[in-house]
Design a protein that fits this description.
Growth Hormone, Chain: A; two-stranded antiparallel ribbon; 64% helix; flat
């Protein structure tokens, strides 16, 4: 199957002739529930392992006598290694199946997790932290595995449920301190089970092996392999599509910034509001939970109304909230004619308002993460692993690079609110790129309607311009979702209208569209 070039020529290009955008069968298959349940639990565990140093850092710093910079590198190298292998991991999952790849990842990650519990120096610990960060790459494997098993009209919901495994970021925050206190420093069973902070990675190593056995023996043995038999070159073809990189920027905004803020907010609460670190961690959880647990909601909404509408809402919400939070605290000084100065319009954000706005940003991120990944199987049904791997990799790298940007912006301006200025600018760039692309698509596909979207027109003319017949519905919905649209011109209920430009069917009619 061919698609038209997103360049200035309407003729198919060579790589588009090889890019298969044929939708996978939109049918439910037995075993998909087990795949979703196993992959979600496994990903939650892997995510907890990936970000466990956020809580273990304090006792590690005390034991090894580390500086804050040295400690930050332990977390940074783990995050980095959890990002750079997502693309190849997704490709391998497409080719060989998610069951075997996920099982191997769980088993292999257990080795460095155990080694972390045995580290005797900072250098050795830094190396093991880098290795255990491999757990973060499980995301692209799970995305490939779940999307291959679930029907198209439910993929947004299924991928959202799987992505809720991000809540693993809070697992160590809640169980870590209690476990460190409960297990004596000398350990258990004569020292075979280490104590203190070392017990947490030891426990994770055991849980990873158990989860690997569950994945191998309980998941359906017959796996779906959308990339089986394909060359590596053909599986990398989608990466030449500009829209893949656009989706990656979206994911930097809703996931990379989530990872960065999850690590940055405790410090922000401590420095700006003077809260104790325990209270700061709990308030940060009010951001982490909606940013993770609302992902299934985002997938469900994306299935119902379309991913693009959801992205507009999420980005708009983030712009408003971050725009308020980035405003520097202060007041206006009015100089009176008599020489007296008067302060007016004082502005400050208290801890309650700050927490509410951060919570709103977390909700938008949680819903937006699912909407981004709803796009991928729509565009690239046979390359979810490769495309999802790249998008996830760049999104995770955003979590690596954004904290330094937060720090530099704060240093340059002298205002900690500059943290949210970075978030605002990044979100604004993504929003403008998305909107410009959509407007260009619509004007190119139907130039005669360029100035008529706010006017009442003859419905038959709209339908003909959209390639349909008079009486066809014109709502912006997906025709393959199976849902009824609004009544058509002849008064009968018809199927939903042709998909928005970000779906494969619409891509066929794009002429000279650069996205």
């Amino acid at each position: 199957m061919t698609t038209l070039s997103p360049g200035s020529d309407s003729r198919p290009t060579a790589h588009h002739e090889l890019l298969d955008t044929t939708p996978l069968p939109d049918v439910a298959v037995p075993g998909r529930g087990r795949v979703l349940a196993i992959s979600t639990v496994a990903f939650t565990l892997m995510f907890a392992v990936w970000l466990m140093f956020g809580v273990l850092g304090i006792p590690i710093r005390d034991e090894f006598g580390l500086t804050d910079v040295q400690l930050s590198w332990i977390t940074a190298v783990a995050v980095l290694n959890g990002a750079i292998w997502r693309l190849p991991a997704g490709i391998v999952a497409d080719r060989f199946g998610g069951r075997i790849v996920f099982t191997l990842m769980l088993a292999l990650t257990a080795i460095p997790a155990y080694l972390v519990s045995q580290a005797g120096s900072y250098t050795v610990l830094l190396f093991y932290a880098f290795l255990v960060g491999f757990a973060g790459n499980s995301f692209s494997v799970g995305i490939s595995w779940v999307s291959a098993w679930w029907p198209r009209h439910l993929q947004g919901t299924a991928l959202g449920v799987f992505g809720a495994g991000n809540v693993g970021a809070s697992v160590t925050k809640f169980i870590g301190p209690a476990l460190i206190t409960a297990v004596p420093a000398a350990g258990l069973l004569g020292g075979f089970v280490p104590g203190g902070w070392r017990f947490v990675p030891f426990l994770y190593a055991a849980l990873l092996l158990i989860m690997a056995a569950v994945a191998w023996f309980l998941a359906p043995r017959h796996d779906h392999k959308p990339g089986q038999g394909r060359s590596l070159g053909s599986m990398l073809l989608p990466l030449r599509e500009l829209r893949v990189w656009r989706f990656s920027l979206y994911y930097v905004i809703v996931f990379g910034a989530y990872v960065a803020l999850a690590a940055w907010l405790p410090k922000y609460y401590y420095d700006v509001y003077g809260l104790p670190i325990q209270q700061a961690a709990l308030l940060t959880a009010l951001f982490i939970f909606p940013a993770s647990l609302l992902r299934p909601v985002g997938g469900f909404i994306s299935d119902r109304i379309g991913a693009r509408k959801v992205m507009y809402a999420c980005f708009g919400t983030m712009l408003v909230a971050s725009g308020i939070l980035m405003m520097p605290y202060g007041y206006i000084v009015l100089q009176q004619p008599d020489g007296e100065a008067r302060q007016v319009m004082p502005w400050t954000v208290g801890v309650v308002l700050f927490t509410v706005l951060v919570f709103i940003i977390g909700c938008a991120m949680g819903i937006g993460k699912a909407a981004v990944y709803k796009h991928i199987p729509e565009y690239f049904p046979h390359d979810v692993g490769a495309v999802g791997g790249l998008v996830g990799s760049l999104g995770a790298l955003g979590g690596f690079f954004l904290p330094p940007l937060f720090a530099y912006a704060t240093a340059w301006t002298g205002a900690p609110q500059a943290t949210f200025g970075v978030l605002f600018v990044t979100t604004l760039i993504g929003t403008l790129w998305m909107h410009a692309t959509i407007v260009h698509m619509l004007h190119t596909a139907s130039p005669e309607l360029a100035n008529r979207f706010e006017k009442d027109g003859d419905e038959a003319e709209w339908a003909r311009a959209d390639g349909g017949m008079p009486g066809a519905p014109i709502d912006d919905e997906d025709p393959q979702s199976g849902r009824a649209g609004r009544p058509t011109r002849d008064g009968q209920d018809g199927p939903d209208t042709p998909p928005t430009p970000d779906s494969p069917d619409q891509a066929k009619s794009e002429k000279g569209i650069p996205a």
